[in-house]
Amino acid sequence: MSAPALQSVAGLYAQRPPRIGEALSILRDAATALGKLHATGKAHGAVCLENILLDAEGAARLCHDTTTPPTASPEQERGEPPDARSDVYALGAAVAELLAGAGPLPEPISRMLAAMTAEDPGDRYNSMDEVLTALEACELMTGHVAFRLGHEAAATRSRRRALVVLIVAMGLVVLSLAMLVIFSRTPPPSGDPPDSYKELVEKRPTP
After folding, report:
1. Any residues with CB less than 8 A from the CB of 134 and at least 6 apart, and which?
2. Domain that holds residue 109
């Protein structure tokens, strides 16, 4: 099924916890939008589940409802202005809240969220590009692929194709390494040809 147009993530998943792939998709879409905002030199400063909306296609969008208490980063609570790393913290906290009822998380995903919500801004990812890179690594290591609400089947097909490509690529790497080892261990030709070969050469008729 498709998500109702522009329904908040908080409202949509009030009835059930999201699947991990759905939460990762929200993280990916929100991080992409925030990355574009940060490229203009601005920060959102109020990222939270109520300010993340899903459209009819299940794509996450950001709004800025000032009546909703944001997920403030530690530096914001100290009165400092928000920046890109503040939004990294808030997005990580929002996704962690979203996955609170999803059961035990794979370790790579837990580590990613922990890095996003580190107390010290210097220990967090510096940009949303780094968050997206970490997300891609989590997908490869855990097998949990981000998919938008109602698009799980397409994500499954994409994951299978990616797995086939990965297996083929790994096979080529292994084959290349094996060939390198074989040729590195083959001694170069040395010495004189055997006598029988010399006789054949000497008896070859001259054209």
Report:
1. 112, 115, 125
2. 7-152
